[in-house]
Design goal:
This protein has helices at 2-16, 24-31, 36-43, 48-55, 90-95, 101-113, 139-156, 166-173, 179-182, 200-205, 210-229; strands at 74-75, 81-85, 122-125, 160-164, 187-189, 192-197. The chain is of the alpha/beta class and 230 residues long. It has a 6-stranded mixed sheet with strand order 1-3-2-4-6-5, with helices on both faces. A hairpin with a 2-residue loop joins β5 and β6 (192-197). α1 (2-16) packs across α7, α2 (24-31) packs across α7 (139-156) and α3 (36-43) runs antiparallel to α4 (48-55). The N and C termini lie far apart (43 Å). The relative contact order is 0.14.
Amino acid sequence: MLSRISEFIKQQIDLYGDEFALSSEQVKSISDDPDPKEDVLVQEANSLQELYDGIHTCTECPLGTKRTRFVFGEGNPDADIMLIGEAPGADEDRTGHVFAGEAGELLNKILAAIDLSREEVFIGNILKCRPPLNRDPLPEEIDTCLPYLYQQIELINPAFILCLGRVAAHTLLQTNEALSKLRLREHNVGSRRCMVTYHPAALLRNTELKCPTWEDVKLLKQRYEEWKVS
Protein backbone atom coordinates (compact mmCIF):
# COMPACT_ATOMS: atom_id res chain seq x y z
CA MET A 1 0.00 0.00 0.00
CA LEU A 2 2.70 2.49 1.00
CA SER A 3 4.75 1.60 -2.06
CA ARG A 4 1.82 2.54 -4.31
CA ILE A 5 1.31 5.86 -2.55
CA SER A 6 5.02 6.64 -2.94
CA GLU A 7 5.03 5.72 -6.61
CA PHE A 8 1.90 7.78 -7.34
CA ILE A 9 3.36 10.85 -5.62
CA LYS A 10 6.62 10.45 -7.55
CA GLN A 11 4.72 10.25 -10.84
CA GLN A 12 2.68 13.33 -9.94
CA ILE A 13 5.84 15.30 -9.13
CA ASP A 14 7.52 14.14 -12.35
CA LEU A 15 4.50 15.24 -14.37
CA TYR A 16 3.39 18.39 -12.56
CA GLY A 17 6.28 19.52 -10.35
CA ASP A 18 6.35 19.92 -6.60
CA GLU A 19 2.97 21.66 -6.42
CA PHE A 20 0.09 19.34 -7.12
CA ALA A 21 -3.24 18.47 -5.58
CA LEU A 22 -3.93 14.99 -4.28
CA SER A 23 -7.60 14.60 -3.49
CA SER A 24 -8.97 12.60 -0.60
CA GLU A 25 -10.60 10.32 -3.17
CA GLN A 26 -7.22 9.66 -4.78
CA VAL A 27 -5.64 8.90 -1.42
CA LYS A 28 -8.43 6.45 -0.60
CA SER A 29 -8.21 4.84 -4.05
CA ILE A 30 -4.47 4.39 -3.72
CA SER A 31 -4.64 3.12 -0.16
CA ASP A 32 -7.35 0.52 -0.77
CA ASP A 33 -5.04 -1.77 -2.70
CA PRO A 34 -6.18 -5.38 -2.88
CA ASP A 35 -3.13 -6.66 -4.72
CA PRO A 36 0.25 -5.23 -3.64
CA LYS A 37 2.04 -7.71 -5.93
CA GLU A 38 0.52 -5.90 -8.90
CA ASP A 39 1.98 -2.61 -7.61
CA VAL A 40 5.45 -4.12 -7.55
CA LEU A 41 5.07 -5.28 -11.14
CA VAL A 42 4.01 -1.79 -12.23
CA GLN A 43 6.83 -0.03 -10.38
CA GLU A 44 9.47 -2.43 -11.66
CA ALA A 45 8.28 -2.31 -15.28
CA ASN A 46 11.11 -1.31 -17.58
CA SER A 47 9.10 -1.55 -20.78
CA LEU A 48 5.54 -1.25 -22.00
CA GLN A 49 5.35 -5.02 -22.35
CA GLU A 50 6.35 -5.49 -18.71
CA LEU A 51 3.79 -2.89 -17.67
CA TYR A 52 1.09 -4.62 -19.69
CA ASP A 53 1.99 -7.96 -18.15
CA GLY A 54 1.62 -6.40 -14.70
CA ILE A 55 -1.73 -4.67 -15.16
CA HIS A 56 -3.78 -6.33 -17.91
CA THR A 57 -5.68 -8.48 -15.41
CA CYS A 58 -6.49 -5.48 -13.18
CA THR A 59 -9.81 -5.58 -11.32
CA GLU A 60 -9.17 -2.71 -8.92
CA CYS A 61 -12.38 -0.98 -9.98
CA PRO A 62 -15.71 -2.55 -11.05
CA LEU A 63 -15.01 -1.88 -14.73
CA GLY A 64 -12.30 -4.51 -14.64
CA THR A 65 -14.81 -7.22 -13.79
CA LYS A 66 -17.14 -6.31 -16.67
CA ARG A 67 -14.79 -5.69 -19.58
CA THR A 68 -14.37 -7.95 -22.60
CA ARG A 69 -10.84 -6.76 -23.37
CA PHE A 70 -8.27 -4.69 -21.49
CA VAL A 71 -7.34 -1.82 -23.86
CA PHE A 72 -3.74 -0.97 -23.03
CA GLY A 73 -2.99 1.34 -25.96
CA GLU A 74 -0.70 0.85 -28.92
CA GLY A 75 1.86 2.42 -31.21
CA ASN A 76 5.53 3.34 -31.11
CA PRO A 77 7.00 2.65 -27.64
CA ASP A 78 9.54 5.42 -28.29
CA ALA A 79 7.09 7.89 -29.79
CA ASP A 80 7.77 11.63 -29.71
CA ILE A 81 4.00 12.24 -29.79
CA MET A 82 1.47 10.55 -27.53
CA LEU A 83 -2.28 10.87 -28.11
CA ILE A 84 -4.56 10.36 -25.12
CA GLY A 85 -8.29 9.91 -25.34
CA GLU A 86 -11.03 9.16 -22.83
CA ALA A 87 -11.87 5.47 -22.53
CA PRO A 88 -12.55 2.42 -24.68
CA GLY A 89 -15.88 2.19 -26.46
CA ALA A 90 -17.77 -0.86 -27.68
CA ASP A 91 -15.43 -1.50 -30.63
CA GLU A 92 -12.34 -1.16 -28.45
CA ASP A 93 -13.77 -3.41 -25.75
CA ARG A 94 -14.56 -6.03 -28.37
CA THR A 95 -11.21 -5.94 -30.19
CA GLY A 96 -8.75 -4.79 -27.52
CA HIS A 97 -7.43 -2.13 -29.92
CA VAL A 98 -7.45 1.55 -29.04
CA PHE A 99 -9.52 3.90 -31.22
CA ALA A 100 -11.24 1.26 -33.33
CA GLY A 101 -14.41 1.76 -35.34
CA GLU A 102 -15.46 5.01 -37.03
CA ALA A 103 -13.66 7.25 -34.55
CA GLY A 104 -10.47 5.29 -35.11
CA GLU A 105 -10.79 5.54 -38.88
CA LEU A 106 -11.22 9.30 -38.58
CA LEU A 107 -8.22 9.55 -36.27
CA ASN A 108 -6.15 7.67 -38.86
CA LYS A 109 -7.18 10.24 -41.48
CA ILE A 110 -6.35 13.13 -39.13
CA LEU A 111 -2.88 11.71 -38.54
CA ALA A 112 -2.35 11.05 -42.25
CA ALA A 113 -3.27 14.66 -43.02
CA ILE A 114 -0.20 15.79 -41.06
CA ASP A 115 1.99 12.99 -42.45
CA LEU A 116 1.86 10.80 -39.37
CA SER A 117 0.59 7.28 -38.75
CA ARG A 118 -0.41 5.10 -35.83
CA GLU A 119 2.94 3.36 -36.09
CA GLU A 120 4.81 6.62 -35.42
CA VAL A 121 2.79 7.82 -32.41
CA PHE A 122 1.47 6.10 -29.30
CA ILE A 123 -2.27 6.18 -28.62
CA GLY A 124 -3.81 5.53 -25.22
CA ASN A 125 -6.73 6.46 -22.99
CA ILE A 126 -7.37 7.74 -19.50
CA LEU A 127 -9.15 4.44 -18.73
CA LYS A 128 -8.18 0.97 -19.88
CA CYS A 129 -11.70 -0.53 -19.57
CA ARG A 130 -15.01 0.52 -21.10
CA PRO A 131 -17.53 2.38 -18.91
CA PRO A 132 -21.10 1.08 -19.32
CA LEU A 133 -22.96 2.65 -22.26
CA ASN A 134 -19.87 4.80 -22.94
CA ARG A 135 -20.70 7.14 -20.06
CA ASP A 136 -18.07 9.56 -18.74
CA PRO A 137 -15.47 7.96 -16.48
CA LEU A 138 -16.23 8.34 -12.78
CA PRO A 139 -13.66 10.14 -10.58
CA GLU A 140 -12.85 6.94 -8.70
CA GLU A 141 -12.29 5.08 -11.98
CA ILE A 142 -9.92 7.79 -13.17
CA ASP A 143 -8.06 7.76 -9.86
CA THR A 144 -7.58 4.01 -10.08
CA CYS A 145 -6.39 3.92 -13.67
CA LEU A 146 -4.38 7.13 -13.82
CA PRO A 147 -1.16 5.72 -12.29
CA TYR A 148 -1.05 3.22 -15.17
CA LEU A 149 -1.24 6.03 -17.71
CA TYR A 150 1.43 8.02 -15.88
CA GLN A 151 3.70 5.00 -16.00
CA GLN A 152 3.08 4.68 -19.73
CA ILE A 153 4.02 8.32 -20.20
CA GLU A 154 7.21 7.82 -18.21
CA LEU A 155 8.21 4.74 -20.23
CA ILE A 156 7.41 6.26 -23.63
CA ASN A 157 8.79 9.69 -22.66
CA PRO A 158 7.08 11.67 -25.45
CA ALA A 159 8.02 15.27 -26.15
CA PHE A 160 4.40 16.13 -27.06
CA ILE A 161 1.06 15.01 -25.68
CA LEU A 162 -2.18 15.61 -27.60
CA CYS A 163 -5.30 15.39 -25.46
CA LEU A 164 -8.27 14.17 -27.47
CA GLY A 165 -11.39 15.55 -25.85
CA ARG A 166 -12.59 17.07 -22.62
CA VAL A 167 -11.99 14.16 -20.25
CA ALA A 168 -8.36 13.70 -21.27
CA ALA A 169 -7.67 17.44 -21.16
CA HIS A 170 -9.34 18.01 -17.80
CA THR A 171 -7.62 15.00 -16.26
CA LEU A 172 -4.08 15.64 -17.43
CA LEU A 173 -4.19 19.43 -17.10
CA GLN A 174 -6.09 19.31 -13.79
CA THR A 175 -8.61 21.93 -14.86
CA ASN A 176 -12.30 22.33 -15.63
CA GLU A 177 -11.77 25.07 -18.22
CA ALA A 178 -13.82 24.74 -21.39
CA LEU A 179 -12.23 22.70 -24.14
CA SER A 180 -12.87 25.52 -26.61
CA LYS A 181 -10.53 27.70 -24.54
CA LEU A 182 -7.94 25.05 -23.72
CA ARG A 183 -7.33 24.31 -27.38
CA LEU A 184 -6.32 27.89 -28.12
CA ARG A 185 -2.97 27.63 -26.35
CA GLU A 186 -0.15 25.27 -25.45
CA HIS A 187 0.20 23.65 -22.04
CA ASN A 188 2.74 21.62 -20.14
CA VAL A 189 2.44 18.22 -18.50
CA GLY A 190 5.65 18.25 -16.53
CA SER A 191 8.45 18.79 -19.04
CA ARG A 192 6.24 17.68 -21.92
CA ARG A 193 4.44 20.06 -24.21
CA CYS A 194 0.71 19.42 -24.36
CA MET A 195 -1.95 20.47 -26.80
CA VAL A 196 -5.69 19.92 -26.80
CA THR A 197 -8.22 19.19 -29.51
CA TYR A 198 -11.62 17.59 -29.93
CA HIS A 199 -12.20 13.86 -29.68
CA PRO A 200 -12.74 12.18 -33.08
CA ALA A 201 -16.10 10.88 -31.86
CA ALA A 202 -17.21 14.49 -31.33
CA LEU A 203 -16.33 15.26 -34.95
CA LEU A 204 -18.59 12.43 -36.08
CA ARG A 205 -21.45 14.03 -34.16
CA ASN A 206 -20.67 17.61 -35.13
CA THR A 207 -18.87 18.20 -38.41
CA GLU A 208 -18.37 21.88 -37.57
CA LEU A 209 -15.59 20.79 -35.23
CA LYS A 210 -13.50 19.44 -38.09
CA CYS A 211 -12.06 22.84 -39.05
CA PRO A 212 -10.82 23.77 -35.56
CA THR A 213 -9.44 20.24 -35.13
CA TRP A 214 -7.54 20.62 -38.38
CA GLU A 215 -6.04 23.88 -37.10
CA ASP A 216 -5.06 22.16 -33.84
CA VAL A 217 -3.25 19.26 -35.44
CA LYS A 218 -1.54 21.53 -37.97
CA LEU A 219 -0.16 23.53 -35.06
CA LEU A 220 0.95 20.32 -33.35
CA LYS A 221 2.83 19.27 -36.49
CA GLN A 222 4.40 22.72 -36.80
CA ARG A 223 5.60 22.70 -33.19
CA TYR A 224 6.85 19.13 -33.59
CA GLU A 225 8.87 19.98 -36.70
CA GLU A 226 10.35 23.03 -34.95
CA TRP A 227 11.28 20.86 -31.97
CA LYS A 228 13.02 18.28 -34.16
CA VAL A 229 15.39 20.87 -35.61
CA SER A 230 15.99 22.81 -32.40
